[in-house]
C-alpha cells in the first residue's frame, strides 16, 4: 500500500475536526501463505486450470478437500478473502468428474451472491473444458428456463426463500434430487434467530424429501467465525460436522483504529465518518465506508465527494445493472471510494481495497470482521477505522477492545423447539409427503405433540383408503396430509406467520413487523427508525395489518411508555449460588403501552397518552436472577435492579448474534419467590434460544455488564452505561451505584 500509516495518522491529527477521537490503534502482523498438496491430486482438467491461474492450494483448502473425500460433513471458518469459495467448489467439481450424474446445490442468503458466484463458476467451467450446465434457480429465473434447469443442470445456485416454495413441487426435481451429492451453504453465520431457526427446519424438510428419493448428500458450510461453529452447523443441518479453521491464506499487515465520536460532540458522528472517508481517499487509499442506512450512504458519499472526487454511494434499491457497474468501477480502480450499507458486507467481489471505514458499530463482532475483511483482500497492507457512536455496547467495546480482537465471535442462535415455527414447517412437510410417526427423527422431541395439535386444529388430516371417521390419535401406522394447498406461501422464513404488520410509506412497503414490534415501536404518533431513518406514524391499523408512515425530522424521536408484567409458568433449569439463584424457564409476558414522549436529543417536547392499544401477550422463555442476600447492596434497590437490567441487555449481543431489540427485560423488587429479581426474555413467542444461551453464560454476561457500568466516567448514569432509549419507564428509577453492587454480586466479584 503506497502510504505510511504513521504519516497518515500524523496528518490526521492536524485536521481541524480532530479533537482526540483516536482511542487506540492495533496492528495485526502480516502472515505468509501456507500451502499443501493432495494425494491423489485433483483430476487433470482441474489441476491444469489451477496451474494456468497460478493457484496453489492453501492448507485449509486442501484440508477441506481431504475431509470431503473421506465422506465427512465440513464447516469451514476462516477469514474473509481466504479462498473459502474455492475450498468448497473444488471437491464438488472433482466429484462431477468421476460421477457423470452427480448434482450439487449451493445455497446463499442473498440473490446477489448467487449471481456473483455464477459468473466465477461459468469462467471455471469454460476454462476447464467441462460442462455442468450451471444455473441460478430462484424467483427471477424465467419460467421457460426452469424445466430445462431442473432436467439438465448438475450445479444449481439458489437461496432458502426460493427452496421453501419449491419443496412442495419436489416431484419435478426427482432427477436432480436422486443424484444430489452435495449441499453447500455459504455465509452460514447469516442463519440465526427466527430466520436461522426456519432455515434449520427447511433443511430437515429437504433432507426428508431427499431420503424419499434415495439420496443423502454431504454438507459443506462456509462461515465467518463464531463461538462454536460445529454446534451451529449441527443445529442448522442436523448432521455431525468436522471443523476446518486453521487459515493458511496470506494477508498483509492490517492496522485498526478505534475512533470515539464522543470526543468531539460539536460534530455529528455521521459528519465525522464523512471526514475520515474523504481523508482516506485523499491520502491515496481506495476506501469503502460502511454506513448505518441507505440515506446515510447517500449523504456520506455527498459530503465526502465535496472534499475529494471519485466517490459514489452504493445500496440496496439500485437496479442490479447499476450495482454491477459500481462494483466493476470499484474493482477496476475507476472509483476511489464507495459509501455503502451492509449490502457489501458479504462476499460480492469488489477486489482488494486499501481501507475500510465502519460508521457505527455493526452490531456483532462477526459483522465487524466481515466488513473489515473487505480491506486488503489482495494481500496488501490495509487500514480499518471503526467509528463508535454513543451507546452502552459501543462504550464497553471502546474500553474493552479485546472483545473485538481476542475473543471468538458471538454464537449464532438457532432453536428447534419453538412450537410456532415447528407447526408451520410441519404443515409444509405434510403437503410435501404425508407425515408419519417415524418423521420424529427429522423434527425432534416436540414433533408428536405438534402433530397432535395440528390434528385438533384440523390443519392436517388422516390419509385413509376408506370412508370413515378421521382418527384423532397419531399412531405408528397412520399418515397425515395437509388440509389445504400451498402451505409454504402462508408464511415466510424471516418472521412468524401470525400478526405480521406492513410498514408503508408512499405505497412502498418499507418492512414487515411482528405484531409485538408494531405495538411497541410503531404505535400511533411514534417516530419509527427504518435503517436509521426516522418516519412518523400517520395511520395505525392492526386489524388490517397496515401502518402508514411519512418521513420525519432527523432530530425527533419517541420513547414508548409501557408497563411489563411477567409470570413464571415452568422452571426448566436452576443453579443455586450462595447469594443468588439463576433460573431458566417458560414465562408469560404482558406488555401494555400507555403513552409516549416526543423528544429531541437534548429535551422532551411533549408527553402523550395512548388509549385502546391492545396489550402484547407472549409465552416465551426467560433467564432470571433471584437475589437471596442483599447484604452490602446500598441505595435505591428498585433503581439498582432497573439499571442492572439495562446493562445486562446492552451487552447481550456480545454472547448471542442478536440485536438488543430481540430481547426484553423486567426487574421487580418483590419478584420470583418474593425476592428481588431481574428477568431477560426472548421477544418472540416460544423463544428462539437467546435466553438459553444467556443462562449458560450468565456469569460472563454479568462480568461484562459490571465492567460496562463500573468503567463509565459518569457520576449517576448516562446513555453510555445504564440508560436505554427503549426503556418503557423513561429510565426511571435508576441507581448506578446500586447496580454496580448487584452486578458485582452476580459476577462473583465480591
From TrEMBL:
Domain Helicase ATP-binding: 65-244
InterPro entries on file: DEAD/DEAH_box_helicase_dom, Helicase_ATP-bd, Helicase_C-like, HRQ1_WHD, MZB, P-loop_NTPase
GO BP annotations, alphabetical order: interstrand cross-link repair; nucleotide-excision repair
An example molecular function term from Gene Ontology annotations: ATP binding
Keywords annotated in UniProt: ATP-binding, Helicase, Hydrolase, Nucleotide-binding
Residues covered by the Helicase C-terminal domain: 272-441
Pfam families in alphabetical order: DEAD, Helicase_C, MZB, WHD_HRQ1
PANTHER family per the UniProt record, alphabetical: ATP-DEPENDENT HELICASE HRQ1
Protein name, entry field: DEAD/DEAH box helicase
Organism, as annotated: Biomaibacter acetigenes
